[in-house]
Amino acid sequence: MSINPYIVLGSSVVGLFVGLTGAGGGALMTPMLILLFSVKPSTAISSDLVAAVFMRPFGAAVHIAKKTVNFQLVGWMILGSVPMALLGSYLLHLMGHTKTSQTNIEQALGAALLVGAVAMVIRYFLDRRSGQKRYAVVHEITPRPLLTVIIGMVGGVIVGMTSVGSGSLMIVFLLFLYPMLGANQLVGTDLAQAVPLTVAAALGALLFGHIEFSVTASVIIGSVPAVIIGAYFSSRAPDKYIRPVITFVIFASGLKYAGLGTTALGWVLCVVILGAAGFWIFHVRPWRAVLDTQAVTPQHELEDFEI
Question: Which one, of 211, 162, 182, 181, lies nearest residue 47 by Cα?
């Protein structure tokens, strides 16, 4: 078994995002293994799931220490997600190893990611239109059992088939179900519920045999230290910074899996970044804050500053 230093380096970057945002398992790690290191989709998915068994508990432990985990919410999600993750792994096994089945896996992965990105954007505009502020504290939220279990079931079967769901899609569902919570408040709970979910999905992957242990070991070595650092900072990161990063990463990965070519993907992402920057400048108008500051600052203070 040989350790790939480039996979270790890439996994450390992904691990940082996982700890910071709760996303990254399928949205970042799996595409990286497939697109940059030519790992087969089924092998990348399964190796990512096994590595997540070692990676996510460290991130969850940091948030538990910070008291940013709602254990009731975690319990209801696990009730739905764990058995469905085993089912998802079995469905992946039934699809086999043919080129057609690998293409189907990629397309399912892309569709899941794009749905998640669109949902995040819709939620953002709904919040702006209603003027709703996400100020609730996650451990004070009262869970809604039935809908939370359903979210776990949907996320479980998807994560079993594609390794996407525990961080990328399920956090989107939770944002809609608990609209007073910010994305930064959900990272700890999402990481905690992902621990038994990924264990179940990884067990299914081990049973049905898609693991490449050299890839898995490289991912673990790179991701575990980085996820601890990311989780530490995520407890302090404002929601307004976390949600755009999650949305952009999910959107980019979804487009690639949907079949968009590398060059076209680059142009689309450039347009999206420039459009988002223009939108931010038009609505925030940061120069107004500078003018307002100058307007309320006494003239003698400005003169002292110039001196």
Answer: 211
CA 83 vs CA 88, 159, 160, 163: distances in Å: 9, 11, 10, 15
Q: How far is CA 304 from CA 173, 296, 299, in A?
A: 53, 15, 9
pLDDT in tens, 259-276: 777 677 778 888 888 888
Q: DSSP state, 28?
A: I
Alpha-carbon gap, residue 291 to 297, rounded angstroms: 10
Task: Give the ranges where 2-144 is alpha helix by DSSP (H).
Answer: 5-21, 30-37, 41-65, 71-95, 99-130
Length of the chain: 307
- pTM score, whole prediction: 0.69
CA distance 16 to 9: 11
> For residue 7, with 0-12 CB atoms within 10 Å meaning exposed, 13-18 middle and 19 or more buried, which class applies?
buried
Q: What angle do CA 151, 79, 81 make, to 5 degrees?
A: 50
**Domain boundary assignment for the chain:** 5-260, 264-307
Q: What is the distance between the alpha carbons of residues 264 and 102, in angstroms, rounded to a whole number?
A: 22
Closest CA to 52 of 286, 210, 233, 222: 222
pLDDT tens-digit readout, 126-144 = 767 766 666 667 777 888 9
Q: How far apart are CA 135 and CA 138, in angstroms?
A: 9
Among 77, 73, 110, smallest CA distance to 257 is for 110
As a whole number of angstroms, the distance between CA 206 and CA 208 comes to 6
Which residue's structure tokens are 């003027």?
131
CA angle 254, 255, 259 (to 5 degrees): 110
* CA atoms of 253 and 53, how far apart (whole Å): 22
